[in-house]
Amino acid sequence: MTGFPAPLVVTRPSLQSKTLIAALEQDGHQVVALPLIELVPDSGMLTTELPALPGYDLVVFASPAAVKIWCEACLMYFSGTEWMRGLSFAVAGRASREMLARYGIVTEQHQIFCPADDASAGGDALGELLAAVAPWKRILYLRGDTGRACLPDLLASLTPELKIVPAYRRELLEATTQVLQQIRFLTQSQSLWLISSSGALEHFAKLLDQAVDLDEWRRTVRIGALHVRIAERAYALGFEQEVCLGSLALENAGNHSDVEGWRALLTRVRVTGRAPAG
User: Fold this and answer.
1) Three-class SS of residue 182?
2) Distance between CA atoms of 214 and 175, rounded to whole angstroms?
3) pLDDT tens digits, residue range 123-156?
4) Which CATH number covers residue 144?
C-alpha cells in the first residue's frame, strides 16, 4: 500500500495510540506521535480502592483507558484472575469491550453489559441495560478525573452504594518551545492531524495560536476525524480546510474498529485526492 503523501500526526494519548501507530506504519505511512492530551494513572487512588473490589457486584468503565489502567492495576495487586470472580462489567462502546477482551474478560466467561450498536452507544443506552436488572448492591464506576454527570447520576439511581473512582487524570500537552516548533514544522509539511476527541481539538487550536499565524493555520491545517461532531467543532473553532471524514464516520461506524476507521478515511482521501465531504 502506498503511504499518505504527507505525515500523519497521531494526537491521541500514548496509552491508546500504539496499535494505531503500528497499523499505519505497517500500511506504509509516515507517522508522527504527538499526544495532545496524556492520560496519567492515579496510582494512589487505585491502590486505595483495590482491596475493596470483592465487595462490588458491578464495575462500570467510562473509557478504554479506564479498562486498561484498572486491569493492569488488578494484575499487579491480585493473584491471577481471582479479582474477576463474581463481578459483572459494563462499558458504553465497542472499544472498551475490546479492551476488556484483551484481559480475558469476555462474554463466554463473564456478564458484560454493552449496547449492541455503537451508533447508539453511550451512557443512556448503557443505563437502560443496567436498569433492566437493577437493583445492584454496590457499583464501582471508573473514569478520568473529569466526566459528564449524567452517567453517575443514573448509576446512583440503580444502587444504594455507588463509588466513583478517578482512575486517571488528563494532562494537556505543554506549549514548550520544542513543541511549538514541531507543530510549526508539521503544519508547513501539510500533515494530516488525526484528532480523536473534541477536547484534544480545542487544545490543538490553542497551541496553533502560539505556533502559527492565525490566518495561516485557519487556511492550511488539515484535520482527519472519525466523528462528525469533531468536524463540526473544528469548523466552529475556525478551521477552514474541509475536515477529512472517513466513510465509517457516516455509515455504520459501530461495526468497525478504530484502526479500520482510520484506514478507510485514508483510503478515501487517496482515491479522491481531496477530503471526503462531511
Assistant:
1) helix
2) 16
3) 778 888 999 988 899 999 999 887 666 788 889 9
4) 3.40.50.10090
